[in-house]
Amino acid sequence: MSDATATPAAPTHGIGAILRHAQYVIGENKVTGFAFGLFLLIVLAALIGPYIVPHDPLASNTSAALQGPSAKYWFGTDQLGRDVFSRVIVATRLDFAIAIFSVALVFLMGGLAGVAAGFFGGWTDRIVSRIADTIMAFPLFVLAMGIVAALGNTVENIILATAIVNFPLYARIARAEANVRREAGFVQAARLSGNGEFRILLGHILPNIMPIMVVQMSLTMGYAILNAAGLSFIGLGVRPPTPEWGIMVAEGAAFMVSGEWWIAFFPGLALMLAVFCFNLLGDGLRDIIDPQRRT
Amino acid sequence: MTAAIPNAPAEVPLLDVRDLTVEFSTRRGAVQAVKHVDVTVGKGETVAIVGESGSGKSVTSYAVMRILDRAGRIADGTITFGGVDVGKAGEREMRDLRGREISMIFQNPRAALNPIRKVGHQIEDVLRQHAQAGSDDSKAKAIAILEQVRIARPDERYHAFPFELSGGMCQRVVIALALACRPQLLIADEPTTGLDVTTQKTVMDLVVELTRQRGMSTILITHDLGLAAAYCDRVVVMEKGRVVETANSHAIFSAPNHPYTRKLVRATPRLGVTLSDLLPEEEGVARKASRASNGANGANGAGHASSDEQPLLVVEGLVKEYPRKDTGGGSLKSLFKRNGAATAPEGPPPVFRAVDGISFSVRRGESVGLVGESGCGKSTTSTMVMRLIDKTGGQILFDGEDIGAIPARQFARLPLRKRIQMVFQDPTESLNPRFTAVRAIADPILRMGESMSAKAVRARCEELATQVGLPLEFLDRFPHQLSGGQKARVGIARAIALKPDLVILDEPTAALDVSVQAVVLNLLQDLKEQLGMSYLFVSHDLNVVRLLCDRVIVMQAGRIVEEGPTEKVLGAPAAAYTRELLSAIPHPPL
C-alpha cells in the first residue's frame, strides 16, 4: 500500500516499550533519574525499614540521652535516649502511607467529581464547582486542623483532612481537562460505537487525562507529607511516642537552642528530601506516561 | 542534483538557495529534513514549492527566514537574498530582513493575529517597527492598507478584533500585515488551506495581483498542485526533502518528467477523470478492469432494486436553530442605555437557523454528496442525521422509522445505532490517543456486536484491517505511531465494523495528502460496492464529490439551492451559486 511507509519494525507497545521509554527519560534527564533513585529509597525504607534499623525506635535509654551523631548512633539520640536514625527510618512508613492514601482518596473524590463536572456540565458542574469554591475559601491548613480537631486525632482523619483540602485542585484540573475533550472527535466516535455517557467518561475521557492527574498526584504527595507532618508538629496528628517526622521535629525544636541540633535536623532533612523527590518525580512521570512523547 | 531550470532569470536572482541541507537533532540522531535543495526566485517571479506532508517544503522556507526551531540548523549550503548571505547574517540583520524585505503568510490566519488586539493596531505596530510610519500618520496608513486588501469599510474594520472577522477576512488582514512594509519577497505557506474555494480564489487573486503590481516575488508553498500551477510561473516539486523537478507551470501538468510528479499529477482530482485514474498507472489499470467487471453486474442489480424500494433515508423539512450568539453585545449596550429593556420590542428570542427546512432522500446503495461552503449547514445536517445532536423541527426517517424523534443521548444505546455510522474529517482527532488501532476498531464490536470471545473480536478486526488495506502489524500501534492514511483506514474500519446501512463521510480526505486521498477514495468506492452501503458524503471539494457521488445536493445558508445527478449539477449547473463554486476551483493551465 502506498501509504504504508516503512517504519522501524521494533515493537512499539507493551510493557517492554514502556520500560525502555522510562529508561530513556531517566537517562536523558539526570534530575529525574535522581528523583527516581530517591523514590526507590523511600519505598524501600517504608517497606523494610522497621526490620533493619539498628535500634528499637521506641526503646528509651536515659543513660545515652542527648548524644550527638556517632558511630553507634548515626543521627545521635534524643532526650529519652532513643536512636534518631532508627526513628527517622521507621517513620517513613507512616508518613508515606498517609501520603499515598490521602492522594488516592482525593483522586477518587476530586478527580472523578471533576471529570463528571467537565463532561456533563449543567448541575453536576455547578455543584462540584461550588463545593470546590467553598473549600478554597478557607486557609487550607487551618481547614485541615479544624477537620482533625473535630473528628478526632487519628491517622484516618489526617488522611481524610489532607484529601479534602486538596479536593479543589483535583476537581478543577480534571474538570478543565474533561471539558476540552467533551466534544472531541474520538468522543463523538465513541458515541457512534454505542458507548453510553458513563462509559465514555470512564473508558475514553478518564484515561486521556490520567497523565496530568498522575503528575498532580506526585506533586500533592509532597504536600500531603508536609501536611501530615505539620498537623503532627502542632500536636493535632499522630501522638507520641510513635515515630513520625513532624512530631520529631516538634520535639527536637526545643533542643535546638541548647545545641542538640540533630534531633530536629535529621527528621526535617528526611521530610525535605521526600517532598523534593515527589515534586521532581512529577515532571519525570509526565514524560514517561504521555504516549505522544513515546516516539 | 541540479535540475535544468527552464526560464531561469537572466539577472542575479533575488533569492538564491544553493545546496541547502537542514538537519534536525532528534532522539535518534540528526535527521535531514531538507537535502541539497536548490531554489532560485527571480525579481517579480512567482514560484510554487509543492509537496506532500513531510516533503520539507515548509522547512525550506523557514530556513530562508531563519526561523527554524531550536532543534533545526542549516547544515550545509548557502542562502543568498539580495546579496546578503542569510546563513551568516547576524540576528539583528535578520530581524531587519524579516518583515521589511521578506515577509510570510501562515496557514492559520487566526493564529497569526494577536487575538486581543484590534487589527488596525496590529498593522500600525508593524509599520512603526520598521519605521514606515510615525505616530501621526500610522492610522491613516493602516486604513489605506486595509483598503488595498479589499476589506470593505476599512475605517470600521480598523477597530475590529480578529475573532469578529471571518477566516477569509483574517487572511486578508494577515496579507495586509505581510505587505505593509512593501517587502521584496513574500512567502505564503499554505495560505488558503482551510478556506472555502470561493474565498481561496479571492485571496489568491489578491495576492497575485498585489505582488504583481509592486513587482514583488512570491514563494507559494502548497500541497495543491492545481493551485500552484494556476497561480505560479514556476513549480518546484519536492519529495522527502529533495527537489525532484523544477518546471514551468504549463509543463508540469502536460509533461511531468519525474515519476513522483507524474504520481502527484495523476492523484490530483480534476475534470474528466475517474477514481481509478487517480492511482499510479499500473494499480489504476488493474483496479479499473476489476471494477468494470464487478460494476456491470453490481450497478445493474443495485439500480433495479433501488428504484422500487422505499429510500433508506428520507429527510423532510429538517430545521436546526441555535440561540443567536451576538445578542450578548446587544444586551450589554442596552444595559448602559437607560430604559433600554423597556423600549425593546417584545418577541421571541432571536435564533439563528443553521439548517432551514431541507428535504432530501438517500436510496440504498447510493452515494449522495452534500456540498457547500463552511457555515452552510452541511455538517449540522449530517450530525443531525447521525443523531449526535437533536433537531429543532422536521423529520428524519431511516428505513421508515422516525429516528429524529429519539433524543440523541438515548440513541447511542439503541440497536439502530450500528446501522448509521460515520467517518470523521480529522482521522487524528477522531481516534482516542490512548487506544491502539485494534482497540479502536473493536470498540463498536464490543459495545454493539454479538458477544464473542476476545479471540473472535481480534480475528474480526484483522479481517476488517485487511479489508481496508491496513497491514496487520499496525494494529497494535497507537494513533501517533500511524501515518495520516493509516489513521484514516482505522477510522473507516471502525465505521464499517458492524456493516452499517448508511455511512456519513464528513470530508474524510480533507486532512490527507492527495496521493493518500486517491487511495482512500478508491477504498471507499470498493467498500461501497462490496458491502452495499449508502454514503452521505459531506464535502466542500467539488472535484472529489464528482468522483464518488451519484447525486449532489448543493447547500447555501441552510437551504438546498440545487439537487440532481452529479453530471448534471456539476456539468450544467442551474443555480448561480453552483456556478460560482465551480468557477472558483483553480484550473491549472493545460
Mean pLDDT of chain A: 83
Q: Find the CATH topology of the domain at 309-327 and 351-584 in chain B.
A: Rossmann fold
* Total helical segments of chain A: 10
Portion in strands of chain B? 15-25%
Give the SSE order of chain A as H and E letters. Answer: HHHHHHHHHH
The first-level CATH class of chain A is given as: Mainly Alpha
CATH architecture descriptor text of the domain at 309-327 and 351-584 in chain B:
3-Layer(aba) Sandwich
User: Which percent bin holds the helix content of chain A?
Assistant: over 70%
Tell me what portion of residues of chain A adopts beta-strand conformation. under 5%
Give helix % range of chain B.
25-40%
Reading off the top of the CATH hierarchy, the class of the domain at 309-327 and 351-584 in chain B is best stated as Alpha Beta
Instruction: Supply the number of structural domains of chain A.
Output: 1
Structural class of chain B: alpha/beta
End-to-end C-alpha gap of chain B: 28 Å
User: Which regions of chain A contain 5 or more consecutive residues with pLDDT less than 50?
Assistant: 1-12
Q: Report the count of strand segments of chain B.
A: 20
Global structural class of chain A: mainly alpha
CATH superfamily of chain A: MetI-like
Q: What does this protein look like?
A:
- The complex is a heterodimer of chains A (295) and B (590).
- Chain A is built from ten helices and no strands.
- Chain A has 295 residues and is mainly α.
- Chain A has one domain: MetI-like (MetI-like fold).
- By secondary structure, chain B is an alpha/beta fold.
- Helix content of chain B is 40%, strand content 23%.
- Chain B has 23 helices and 20 strands.
- In chain B, the strands form four sheets. Chain B has a six-stranded mixed sheet with strand order 6-7-8-3-9-10, sandwiched between helices. Chain B has a six-stranded mixed sheet with strand order 16-17-18-13-19-20, sandwiched between helices. Chain B has a four-stranded antiparallel sheet with strand order 2-1-4-5.
- Chain B is globular and about 70 Å long.
- Classes of the chains: A mainly alpha (295), B alpha/beta (590).
- Chains A and B meet through helix 7 and helix 8 of A and helix 17, helix 19 and helix 20 of B.
